Amino acid sequence: MKSRAKSLKKIDSREKTAVRSMAKIVLARPRHSNPEGKRKGHVTIGIVAIQGDFAAHAAILQELGAETVEVRKVRDLEGCDGIVLPGGESTTQLQFLKEEGLFDAIRKFSRKGGAIFGTCAGAILLASEVRNPPQESLGLLDMTVLRNGYGRQLASDVFYGPSTLKQEPLEMVFIRGPIIEEVGEDVTVLARHEGKAALVEKGNILVATFHPELTDDTTVHEHFLQMAVKGTAKAAMAR
Ligand code: GLN
Q1: Domains (ranges, CATH) in the chain?
Q2: Does 211 participate in catalysis according to the annotation?
Q3: 70 Cα–ligand 1 center, Å
Q4: Per residue in 31-40, is it b (16+ CB within 10 Å) or e — as a string?
Q5: How far is the CA of 95 from the centre of ligand 1 (A)?
Q6: pTM of this prediction?
Q7: Residue 80 catalytic?
Q8: Model confidence over 27-59: pLDDT tens digits?
């Protein structure tokens, strides 16, 4: 009995320390320890914050009215309706996700119907097959990607390409992005660059080989938020 009380006390003080150290973040980005505690109608997006431009994703999503949470531990996913896997270096990110148990947690999140949006390195992590060189991945979207596929010189620039999400061409910023070489039959292509799929989706997974968070155009993030809302509704119905 005594030892149980002791261990409860321990958890209590650990929680308090965590709450105190997170207080700054809480002000800007509310966290929810349980989904029921969320404000009704609010969408919360967890952004994997290891490296890369996660802050730019957060800024756009907040501008669109979503709440955002920086994800570095499995427990950060609690209460999230969607996850963003930002750009960066996919090899480094893969290693981190594995070390933190996030690799399995993200796959589980997807199985439950949670929406996931991968940009650039995030796209590589979501692919079912990675080439140049081959690399392990979450395998949540049926597609083959070629890392650094556009070549080093031509790889980083702004382009405009056709998209089904809007009438005007979509602005696409490429930074050593992968090429989507092949997609499964039931994968929908939402935008193209040089004839190649650059924005694709299937079910609750959205993938961009470019960086929509680095432009003023919110079209892609708006689309993702709609997916997140739908995914959450489905998960709620299945409960
Ligand atoms: N070239 C990187 C990789 O292979 C991706 C680049 C990016 O995310 N901007 O992981």
Answers
A1: 37-238 (3.40.50.880)
A2: yes
A3: 20
A4: bbeeeeebee
A5: 14
A6: 0.83
A7: no
A8: 333 344 334 445 556 899 999 999 888 999 999
